[in-house]
Prior knowledge:
By secondary structure, this protein is an alpha+beta fold. It has 17 helices and 17 strands. The chain has a seven-stranded mixed β-sheet. Strand 1, helix 1 and strand 2 form a beta-alpha-beta unit. Helix 1 runs parallel beside helix 10, helix 8 packs antiparallel against helix 9 and helix 9 runs parallel beside helix 15. It is globular, with a radius of gyration of 22 Å.
Amino acid sequence: MATAWDYIVIGAGHNGLIAGCRLADAGASVLVVEKLPIAGGLTASHAYVAQAPRHLLSIGAMDDMYMGQTTLAAELGLPALGYERIPLEAPYGWMNEDGDTLLLFADFARTVEEIRRHSRRDAQTYIELRTAIDWICTQQDRFFARPPAAFGTWSTLKLVAKLVRDPALRRRLTRWINGSAFEIIGETFESDAMRGLWAFWVSMVCPADIDGTGVFMAALGNVHRAGVHRPRGGMSSLIHCLQKKFEARGGEVRTGLAVERIVTEHGRATGVRSTSGELLLAGRGVLATCAPQFALGPMLDANVLDRDVCERVASIPANAANIAPFKIDMAVGGVLSFPKAQARRAALDGFDVRKTTFMTGTLEDQRRHVRAIRLGQRIDSPPVYMAILTANDASLAPQGEDVLYLHSNVPADLSNGDWAAQKAAYSHTIRASAHRFIGGLDQEIGAATDILEWHRSAQ
């Protein structure tokens, strides 16, 4: 038996639920399906460690950098549904093994002074960059909705020429749009702190060694615009509010329902079939918010897409670059710290560095890491991304205990062995790398490492 809706949305993360809200507001009947037992996808804060039921881990998104710069939360009435955001004073930063730090404060002038400690030249460069960064951030709906390559080099350059009158700014933007982030970072900054911070940031977004990735450097500039916020109670608090909104509009969410196939007839999507064989019909369309490699790959019958589209799917950077995220989300039975960094900050300003998300490694470290990943190899002491989430939101764990968010890139496909055999080795290497900076890891209760498997399932 088949049940029909106007639209079916695959994936109950924030994208899927917001799409459902918009469609329901337009009067459509909408079903949102989610293969996991809870809504949220990679935007879910949840007790993933069974032995730590009061520790809410965020295995995917943890910050609101972009939605907070729009009117979306107000339009959907999320604050009235209980959505509360915590502003971060210094959202991101860089740290070396000696405990030296560079913090990006929401306050621009304070950030400039922070950069000046590392390089007077870099501080002046950062001031000069602000015009370019603000311009790109203003255009982010056009630039970040799809990669710059999707515009074509010529059309992008025409856009810059039309909208940017200052020749010096136009030259800088043209270089960022065409060049690789690694090249531009090396040309722009001289201190290890600035070079390492920006190199890690872009490497999380895209392969930073390919042309056209320089533009993604600008994303860090949003720290000084509307700022970076963290939903109180974790990202699932956003999901709960979106689901309330969606269901109040007559929408339906089904969790634990995995889609095996998008059903098509005469070149259009007409529904989905679940892994259990249930057929769900969509009279007007199917939206997929899961990875495009999956939605435009194994979810479709052969020959639905033409050859050109299939080739473009195969060339999506997450496929072609062999780069995948590896996450370790840890429930800790005590208090974590950055002991060397905190001791150094005590002599500067006493800022609580537990509240900042840190990136490590120099530009050269990032380049070496990317080269190894492309070859399917593992390196010792890889750069790591570290956030003690409970430092800004104590509600994520019992009092006096912490939640840790670790990330490092790894090869999607290995040169020697498979992931079942190598996962423990990669986990050990990333933990050991983080141990150089973090104190208190010996109090771990348990950990979840899930994103890599989700990434690979979408290949």
